[in-house]
Amino acid sequence: MNKVVVGLSGGVDSSVAAATLHHQGYSVVGLTLWLMKGKGQCCSEGMVDAAKLCEDLGIPHHIVDSRDVFQSNIVDYLVSGYAAGITPLPCSQCNRAVKFSPMLRYAHEELGIEQIATGHYARIHFDETTGRYQLWRAVDRTKDQSYFLYDLTQDVLAHTLFPLGDQTKVETRSVAAGFGLHTASKPESQDLCLIEAHGSMRDFLDKYLAPKEGDIVDQSGKVLGRHLGVHHYTIGQRRGLGIAAEKPLYVVAIDAGRNQVIVGDRTDMLQSDFTVQRVNWVSIPDPEAPIRADVQVRYRSTPEPATLIPLSSVDGNYRVKVTFDDPQASITPGQAAVWYDGDVLLGGGLIEPFPNAS
Prior knowledge:
The protein is an alpha/beta fold. The protein has helices spanning 12-23, 44-57, 67-83, 90-111, 154-158, 169-179, 193-198, 201-206; strands spanning 3-7, 27-34, 61-65, 116-117, 122-127, 132-137, 160-161, 214-217, 223-227, 250-255, 260-264, 271-281, 291-296, 304-314, 317-328, 336-341, 344-351. β5 (122-127) and β6 form a beta hairpin. The termini are far apart.
């Protein structure tokens, strides 16, 4: 009998992943990572729901205390990034450093099981031509989570199952109801567990970063207003600036060194070129020459055609220069740029601070 460890957050998606594999004849073991204290899908409430699911299915349930690794890899990473004036993307970092690799290691070393599964909406295919596992978008493009999974390694993909990748969220709810799962009607979780636990990203950051007043300026340096900390702002932000102006203003840059938030109109946000660091080529070998791909710079943004130019690595930090065919708005340092060929996720990395940033 095939054995698999299923990561359980206590939500409907991971519940259906476990129940589906159990129904298919897998010997399923549930595993919940204790990431932080407080409410939310990944915390005490989620652990209770995950434990009940395992009891209902008659499968073992393990809980691993991952609070220290979550604190160092996610909380500290977020706080230092926002303090430096960038907008970090915690989910891709969490998937690689906190969830998938540690889950796989625990499954192998503690349970003697070689496969893991999660409720993510994505697909994995093996390409016999290249001998590589490929990461594909989910069938349900409105729920596709491949963007957050670009940093997974070949070893992880080779030992991972995504049971929900070929179905829609509506179908997942239906399957949950059909199995009689108590999570069938459980509300959607926030995209970020920290928001669930603290109420908002602002509240979370305010616990770690003291107010530091500074100027909100236009691109000529004219002072338009005041702020209480650059960590409260992100590029592309329009609301909450507290500035009266004749036309809409957006955050176009953050200068942490000068403690300034720079604003402008929408055209001031447009740019074509930027550099990506900590690149991971997922579905294809590292290219030696420029390639064409569709690049996505935010989770909900539309992928746009671009040219990718591989740059020399420095100390193992692989970098890529991205040039969009048409200038794009809201390209934000710290967020992920992920490139696709149709449904196939080729690779991705983190957008570097722009050259003129302090």
